Amino acid sequence: YAKEEFREKWDKKYPNILKSWDKNWAELTAFFEYPAEIRRIIYTTNAVESYHKMVRKFTKSKAIFPTDDSIRKVIYMIVTEISKKWTMPVRDWGRATAFTFLERSSIIRDMEIEKLKEEITKIKEPRRTGYGNIRHKLEDIIIIGLCTVICGGEDFVDMEEFGKSRKENLAKFLELPNGIPDSDTFRRVFEKINPSELSSCLINWVSTEREKRSVVAIDGKTICGSGNSSHKAYHVISAFVAENQITLGELTVEEKTNEIVAVPELLDLIDIKGEIVTADAMSCQKKIVEKIISKKADYTIGLKQNQPMLYQDTEDYFNEYGSTLPSKITHEKNHGRIEKREYRLLTDISWLEQKDEWKGLKALGMAKSKITENNEIREYTRYFITSLTDIDEFADSVRKHWSIENQLHWCLDVIFREDSSRARKDNSPLNMNVLRKTALNLVSQAQYGRISKKKLMFKAALEPNLFLDILFFPKK
């Protein structure tokens, strides 16, 4: 109707406009499917021309696109890069972005699933491939297993049941040539997959962008229920980014005492350049700090009596002169208790005889906690060696080291019930540990208001679209 009104008024003066509109009306009307906020951006010449200039810059080397989807994917990646440079606010942008220009459930999902499948191809097929009796694809088994854990599943029977109940959703991005694998198939495959390869695959896929100068906490956890007659319970050392709540890497050792040897190996597997590495007193070893410095990172490591001379010198100095050093004091009130934390940092260590034996050592630190709870007072004092010289950075690194206990180990035990898991044979406990950590990474990154991780996982089990959002869209 509006077009006909325009024709009556302007057709004689601008006949070519109407001819062009009539010829391309199907394409033009798509413009009106966008909300007014986006239409305004489209017809604002400066903004559009600036955007087009950037698109041309990215696409000038691309002459051929094999399919329409390949064009859409390239445009999506271009928009992602361009948006990093957008600094000027756009009027009503919040309402504009509420309109989904790309079909997230198809385009972004397809991109993410292809990246995941590509990573899975790097895992060595654990089954016999020469007999022609492999009925289910390895990528299907691993992805269904991960999806099950995201939705709160705990074992291989849950994987089968989840697959059957969500077969219609899973078939949108998995081939499933012979339907859903049974629980025995899941069990046999996860018993044989190399856990290091699975961990590397999933960590590379998640590939979350880290904040600059992150705290990377290193600590070990024993999977208590994983032991059987053929092996002791597995002990897994993890590197955990406190700010993003993601696991950077992990390594398995036979016993907790083997952490000393394993930590340098773990550091070789991950990128820690420019970060602050934290660890407990077991990692207070000269080879470990040397490895951290060689990787161009800083460190804050607990100091206890496993280094008797260094510990005694540090304790004596802080007892005698600690009150004269610069301090940082924080107070926190939570769950009926009040905690006062006092941090002090000694940067003049010219008097310390062992200073040259510890690569990169620039300061000694102290953290004193005073906890008041139920009319009782408890005090704890801890000492640290560090390559940091800023007391705020030191205090922040000491505090954030506990994230590996609170945000990783506690979640594995309480949310995922890891210590109660019955997976014990061969590599199954380690591979389930990898799936739980990946699921925790994805759930932690999902933004759905003030809802606990456990509740979000339960909600994902009930709502297929939410489960797909967690799997494919939260990565930053």
pLDDT < 50 stretches? 98-105
Order of the strands making up the biggest sheet: 3-2-1-4-5-9-8-7-6
Coarse morphology: globular
Helix content: 40-55%
Largest sheet: 9 strands, mixed
Q: What's the order of the H and E elements?
A: HHHHHHHHHHHHHEEEHEHEHEEEEHHHHH
Name some characteristics of this structure:
476 residues; 9-stranded mixed sheet; 9 strands
Can you describe what's shown?
With 476 residues, this protein is α+β, with helices and mostly antiparallel strands. The chain has helices at residues 2-10, 15-23, 25-28, 36-43, 45-59, 68-83, 93-97, 107-120, 138-150, 156-165, 167-170, 183-192, 195-206, 259-269, 286-294, 308-321, 391-400, 403-414, 428-445, 453-462, 464-472, and strands at residues 215-222, 235-241, 246-253, 276-279, 298-303, 327-334, 337-346, 363-373, 376-386. A nine-stranded mixed β-sheet has the order 3-2-1-4-5-9-8-7-6, with helices on both faces. Helix 9 crosses helix 19 (428-445) and helix 14 (259-269) packs parallel to helix 15 (286-294). The radius of gyration is 28 Å and the shape is globular.
Topology:
Elements: H1 2-10, H2 15-23, H3 25-28, H4 36-43, H5 45-59, H6 68-83, H7 93-97, H8 107-120, H9 138-150, H10 156-165, H11 167-170, H12 183-192, H13 195-206, E1 215-222, E2 235-241, E3 246-253, H14 259-269, E4 276-279, H15 286-294, E5 298-303, H16 308-321, E6 327-334, E7 337-346, E8 363-373, E9 376-386, H17 391-400, H18 403-414, H19 428-445, H20 453-462, H21 464-472
Parallel strand pairs: 1-4, 4-5
Antiparallel strand pairs: 1-2, 2-3, 5-9, 6-7, 7-8, 8-9
